[in-house]
Amino acid sequence: MIDFIIQNMAPIMFCSLVFFLLLGYPAAFSLGAVGLLFGLIGIELGLFVPDFLQALPDRIYGVMNNDTLLAIPFFTFMGLILERSGMAEDLLDTIGQLFGTVRGGLAYAVIFVGALLAATTGVVAASVISMGLISLPIMLRYGYDRRVASGVIAASGTLAQIIPPSLVLIVMADQLGRSVGDMYEGAFIPGIILSGLYAGYIFLVTIFFPKATPGLPPEAVGFREENGNRGLTSLALLAIAAAFFGWLMMRHSTTRGADFVVLTMFNGIVFAFAVAVLNWVTNRFFGFRFLSHMAQETTFVMVPPLFLIFLVLGTIFIGIATPTEGGAMGAVGALLLGAAKRRLSFDLIRQAVESTAKLSAFVLFILIGARVFSLTFYGVSGHLWVEHLLVSLPGGQVGFLIFVNAFVFVLAFFLDFFELAFIIIPLLGPAAERLGIDLIWFGVILGVNMQTSFMHPPFGFALFYLRSVAPKEPFIDRVTGLRTDPVTTGQIYWGAVPFVVIQVIMVLLVITFPSMVMHYKRGMSNVDPNSIKIELPSLDAPQPELPLFK
Q1: How wide is the angle at C-alpha 20 spanned by C-alphas 14 and 22, nearest 5°?
Q2: Which residue, among 162, 163, 165, 157, has the nearest Cα to 71 in the 3D structure?
Q3: What is the secondary structure of 495-521 as a DSSP string?
């Protein structure tokens, strides 16, 4: 029996950890307890000496000394300030009015705003709760199917998981030993494509189930001109001009990939904002305007978050700032936007600081527990066991990716993305690197896959967040005065299922088309340092004349 335990210590240790997690014990304490328990067992069985555990203080200090992890509280604080200062409400209201009577317009608005919030907040809870509080009552008021409404809100909120500045991408880069900036740039395009797939699903629903996603009635659409026109033509012309101006400014640039998209967008929004300000000035002082009310309001609402996206992501992509510095600038930018909207108060800042401290402490304790677990796991050669197990899978890289993604998909039913990132990723990274898989590509694939951990019924956190703000009892709508039925938990779960399928499809697309991630390498040197040979020319130096001794 003892020999069996010694030979199989690594798998027994891993299974014990999964068992404790499934029992409901906190991940940080489960990791630390299992690590210390099996460390004592390993010492007793003679697998390693007690001095082995003396490396533990250095590993914990390494966590505290990691500058990259400072980006987590910065981005969390930025997201909470933006969410509580009403930016999400302004965006949803304006974009919802923009789509107006278009069938499925509110759902499109939720997806669009979800992508914008993801690129400015990076916090899933903030996005889901904000859109649940603001959009769900409106969607119920105008007859949206409850499954479609709850599903699109939960799924759009989880875009903060994959669209930079995502917290999980920071953790993923740290665990894989890669640059956070590269991970952000690699994930940018897949995140946008995933948003497009969500919109494509809503389009199919509007075609085959038109009653599930009705458009707003004409009387509910605001921002009209004096002649009753909505002014969408003016807005479309402004958007086209802004896009053309942005492209024109970047046409001769050698920059490509996600940074090209961000910089082009920045040039475009600067142009659009300048035109909107000029329109406001001419209307205010001369009584003349060349933009509609809709175009001006949309521009003024859209520009601040888009500018913040450039401030954070643009500076990271073009190499001006590190992710930690970008997060600090984003936090300051969020405070300035809140102050500009006159919604910044001491109570709001206090709440944001408290929530940021709680989340940061949660992440830090899990990471410390993971360090304790991994020290013992490596001591019993667990990393070699995992690497041998994964590398020997049939099918090479493809077989490895299929098995790993299926494994992570199943674990996502029970574990959240922080637990998956800190426990599973350090075990998978070395095997992927040994198989020649690019770790940024691998990280983005797993990031999209782990996004399903927020959407899996019945344990998805996004579903819990939505459940906490969705009506549980019949209520009287404050606008129509009609009695409205509640949203059941079953409807929330069934609404999430199609979006989980879309996320799985996105994983397959990233595996099939790696170029949507690998563009981050453009501009890098393609020369393998190991292939460089330095040959010194032979020098025919004159021989010194030696004295002759007789």
Answers
A1: 105
A2: 165
A3: HHHHHHHHHHHHHHHHHH-THHHHGGG
Decide: helix, strand or coil at residue 157.
helix
Q: Do 117 and 306 contact (CB within 8 A), yes or no?
A: no
According to DSSP, the residues that pair with 475 across neighbouring strands are 484
Identity (one letter) of the amino acid at 120?
T
Instruction: Give the contacts of 244 (CB within 8 A, at least 6 positions apart).
Output: none
| Chain-centre distance for alpha carbon 127 | 11
DSSP state of 219: G
Packed helices 232-250 and 258-286: angle between N→C axes, nearest 10 degrees = 130
Contact 68, 323 (CB under 8 A): yes
Tokens 């006159």 appear where?
Answer: 342
SS3 417: helix
What are the b/e assignments for 55-85, b being 16+ CB within 10 Å? Answer: ebeeeeeeeeeeeebbbbbbbbbbbbbbbbb
Question: Over the chain (550 residues), what is each successive 10-residue block's mean pLDDT?
Answer: 75 82 78 85 79 78 77 81 75 75 84 80 70 80 86 86 81 84 86 91 91 77 63 72 71 59 73 81 78 76 79 76 82 86 84 85 82 81 75 80 86 74 81 86 88 77 80 72 79 89 91 85 54 52 49
Collapsing DSSP to helix, strand or coil, 483 comes out as strand
pTM: predicted TM-score of the whole model, two decimal places: 0.79
Residue 341, phi then psi, degrees to nearest 5: -85, 0
What dihedral angle (degrees, nearest 10) is formed by the CA atoms of 495, 498, 499, 505?
170
* Cβ 9 vs Cβ 42: under 8 Å: yes
Rounded to whole angstroms, the maximal C-alpha distance in the chain is 123
Which residue in the block uniquely carries the two structure tokens 């494994």? Answer: 407
